[in-house]
Design goal:
The chain is built from eight helices and 20 strands. With 380 residues, it is an alpha/beta fold. Helix 5 (204-214) crosses helix 7. The chain starts with a strand and ends with a helix.
Length: 380
């Protein structure tokens, strides 16, 4: 632990130590002469030379201490590297709290891997969260010499695709799991909103069949106007000609639009093939546009030009194209996710002592007031 001053120029306030000295010299107890009748006939003796004298040494020392503490507060004292040897224990969501407590002992400070890192026992087990990110955060905020132990269940949830690399070697311990994990519900099937020109109903059957294959209660609508659906719905735009600016703005706000081959639009520069046929020819191309995705068929929607419309896997392939990319795996065997050391330690900010100094100053001021008040009553 290294002490330091963040604003050393604040020590210039030590010059104020002269204030209590001046006050004590000015307000010291004065001797008031009292005339006696029998002494008026005596010759006056030479007045003795006055001496510099301080009364009430305890009160003076206390006031000097208060001024020194105020000057130190202005200098912002702090320490670096505090609690460097204190062991820390983390428990991942999913472990049995009783098993985790038995593994680290009753006196250890055990915290959940959750936002805010609440203590185990003081808070209910948290839901699954971004375990990898939180472990990295906790490791970065610890002093470089602090040992860290992480307790995990046999199957760890909430991890990301990146290997877990930390600034220190971590004790990685697998303990019994609590309640078994509940398998996440599958994502809902996409909703399709088809906009087609009058007389262009022939292509609707392929999308209606796909929506029926996705769910027993298909979410499908087809219209000939240009009304735009909510951004959560996939827009299938089969109207030929220039794409309206309203559709482009809708995509930029987070929508997904699948255009027919006849739609005229400048595709994004990052456009690439999203669906290829058996010989490698592109059937659907697309790319992100703003917060959404812009896709386009490269063939007319007719079996003669695109035989895949009649293929048994057309509904599954179409769902893959219009659905958002799936997230990376978030569950892994804990024994395969042991973190490795090698990251440079992060420079930790110094811990300021202003709060402790504030308490000392408040107590000192209270003591000074008690002594000053008692001294005035005694003088009276």
């Amino acid at each position: 632990m290294t002490p330091l001053l963040l604003a050393p120029l604040g020590l210039a306030a030590l010059a104020a130590l002269a204030v209590p000295l001046v006050i004590h010299l000015h307000r010291r107890t004065e001797e008031v002469p009292v005339d006696f009748a029998a002494l008026r006939w005596l010759d006056a003796l030479p007045r003795p030379r006055s001496k510099l004298r301080f009364d009430e040494w305890v009160l003076l020392a206390l006031r000097l201490l208060l001024m020194a503490l105020l000057a130190l507060l202005l200098a912002r004292p702090a320490v670096l590297g505090s609690e460097g040897d204190t062991p820390h224990f983390l428990a991942a969501p999913g472990v049995d709290p009783a098993a985790a407590r038995a593994a680290v002992g009753p006196e250890a400070e055990l915290r959940w891997i959750a936002p805010g890192f609440p203590e185990v026992g003081a808070a209910d087990p948290p839901p699954r969260s971004q375990v990898s990110s939180l472990i990295r955060q906790f490791d970065a905020e610890l002093p470089s010499g602090a040992p860290l132990t992480v307790l995990v269940p046999p199957v760890l949830s909430g991890v990301d695709a990146e290997p877990l690399r930390l600034t220190r070697k971590v004790a990685w311990r697998v303990v019994a799991a609590g309640n078994p994990d509940v398998e996440p519900e599958p994502p809902p099937s996409p909703a399709l909103a088809v906009r087609h020109p009058p007389g262009g109903e022939a292509s609707l059957r392929y999308f209606r069949a796909a929506a029926s294959a996705w769910s027993d209660a298909p979410r499908f609508e087809a219209r000939t106007d240009d009304a735009l659906p909510p951004t959560e719905t996939v827009l299938v735009w089969l109207v030929p000609g220039p794409l309206p600016q309203a559709v482009t703005d809708w995509v930029s706000k987070g929508g997904t639009a699948l255009l027919g081959k006849g739609a005229e639009v400048a595709m994004p520069a990052a456009t690439g093939a999203l669906w290829r046929d058996g010989v490698g020819e592109t059937l659907v191309e697309g790319a992100p546009l703003g917060a959404g995705r812009l896709l386009r068929f490269t063939h007319p929607l007719a079996p003669a030009a695109m035989p895949e419309l009649l293929a048994p896997d057309f509904a599954a392939r179409l769902r893959e194209v219009v659905s958002s990319p799936p997230p990376p795996p978030a569950r892994v065997a804990s024994t395969a996710f042991v973190p490795k050391a090698g990251i440079e330690p992060y420079p930790l900010p110094p811990r300021e002592l202003a709060s402790w100094l504030g308490v000392l100053i408040a107590l000192g001021f209270l003591a000074e007031r008690l002594l000053a008040t008692r001294a005035r009553r005694f003088a009276a």
